[in-house]
Amino acid sequence: MTTTSGDEIYSRRIRAGKRTYYLDVRAMRTTPDYYITITESRRTEDGQIEKHKIFLFKEDFAKFRAALEDVIAYVEERLRNQSISGSSAPVA
C-alpha cells in the first residue's frame, strides 16, 4: 500500500512473474471525484518496459466488478471441471 501527494491517492502493486500490475486510485483534477487506473507493466525481450493502462471511472465500478467476478468464476469452474474429468483441454 502506498499513499502519495498529487492526483494519486492510493496504490497497490501486484507482482506476477514477468509482469507487475498497479491498481491506482486517482483524483480528478477538475472535480472532487476519483477514478481507478489499472496498469500492466512488463519487460520486453529487448529489455524495454512496456505498459498498458485502463482508466475505470466510478460509474462503471459495479459493472466492471460484476463482469470480472463472472469471468473469474467461469475460469475457476472450467478448471474444476477439467480436474474432475481429467481433461487437458485448454480453457477458452
Alpha carbon gyration radius: 17 Å
Q: Termini separation (Å)? A: 34 Å
Q: What number is the mean pLDDT?
A: 87
CATH topology: Nuclear Transport Factor 2, Chain: A
Number of strands: 4
**Low-pLDDT stretches:** 1-6
- Note the beta-strand portion: 35-45%
Number of helices: 1
Q: Write out the strand line-up for the largest beta sheet, numbering strands in chain order.
A: 1-2-3-4
Give the C-level CATH assignment: Alpha Beta
Tally of separate domains:
1
The level of helicity is 25-40%
Q: Quick one: biggest sheet?
A: 4 strands, antiparallel
Coarse morphology:
flat
Give the H and E element order.
EEEEH
Protein architecture, described:
By secondary structure, the protein is of the alpha+beta class. It has a single domain (8-85), classed as Nuclear Transport Factor 2, Chain: A (Roll). It has one helix and four strands, in the order ββββα. The protein has a four-stranded antiparallel sheet, with no helix packed on it. The longest helix is centred in the C-terminal third of the chain and has 25 residues, at 61-85. The radius of gyration is 17 Å and the shape is flat. The model is unreliable at 1-6 (pLDDT under 50).
